[in-house]
Design brief:
The chain is mainly alpha-helical and 257 residues long. It contains 12 helices and no strands. 87% of the residues lie in helices and 0% in strands. It is globular, with a radius of gyration of 20 Å.
Length: 257
């Protein structure tokens, strides 16, 4: 029965958080009863993410902190850092970025102690987004530039493009529109070829809003304003079409779960 629920849970987690929580909360007691410690920690981590997406931050933190306690008991610094980062992300989602940053930086410190470059890049990306939430733009750029450097040096091209999209978002917040658009122009074709629909839709949407924002800046001539607005339309259209495709895919998979 546990395997049956687990199989269904993986599908639900990928596409529909509500179903994932229902199934996951049935799996968890079974795993506890069987004494499957590693699997319990995995389920707690997934439930933390899913309940956070449902904005049930109290429950999400309870799951994430129990997972972190189990990771600490194991002594595995990589896993401890992972659950710390999850706790930090939940606090950020709950509009408590300062509290979240404490956990993310602790995760970063552990990753540095074990020299796990992949996780260092992940946590630098998380720290950058958190600093950005607090309008600490210089700190955000320092963290994201470090993440970009690590991804580039280690040849993780797909991760590199995600980090570049994070930097573009920070630049948009700083009103450095042209620099941000140049990054999006570079990475959007790769997202298309790789089939990374989520990152593609987000990037297209941000380009559209950036062009609209530029059209509304003081001193923008009428002709230029109309040109920017026309340029924005296909980006919004493409983003909307991709989001519709994703929603239909999720619906089909959820029905079959």
């Amino acid at each position: 029965a546990c395997k049956e629920y687990k199989s269904k849970y993986v599908v639900c987690y990928s596409f529909e958080e509500f179903s994932a929580v229902i199934v996951g909360e049935k799996v968890l007691p079974m795993l506890r009863q069987l004494g499957m410690t590693d699997e319990v920690a995995d389920e707690l981590s997934i439930l933390a993410v899913c309940t956070s997406r449902q904005s049930d931050y109290h429950k999400a933190l309870r799951y994430a902190k129990e997972c972190n306690a189990m990771d600490r008991a194991s002594g595995d610094k990589e896993m401890i850092s992972s659950s710390l980062n999850t706790i930090g992300a939940i606090y950020v989602d709950a509009k408590q970025p300062q509290e979240g940053l404490k956990y993310i930086l602790e995760a970063l410190q552990l990753a540095e102690e074990i020299n796990h470059r992949g996780r260092i890049a992940i946590y630098c990306g998380a720290a950058a987004e958190t600093e950005f939430c607090m309008n600490h733009f210089d700190a955000a750029l320092r963290y994201i530039d470090r993440a970009i450097q690590l991804e580039r040096e280690d040849g993780r091209q797909m991760k590199l493009r995600v980090r570049l999209s994070q930097k573009a978002a920070i630049l948009l917040g700083m009103k450095q529109h042209q620099e941000a658009l140049a990054i999006f122009d570079t990475i959007i074709p790769y997202f298309r070829r790789e089939g990374n629909r989520q990152s593609l839709a987000i990037s297209l949407n941000k380009v559209g809003y950036t062009l609209l924002s530029m059209s509304r800046e003081e001193g923008c001539a009428d002709e230029e304003k109309r040109s920017l607005e026309r340029r924005a339309v296909p980006y919004f259209r493409d983003a909307g079409s991709i989001c519709h495709e994703i929603a239909r895919s999720e619906e089909r998979l959820s029905r079959n779960a």
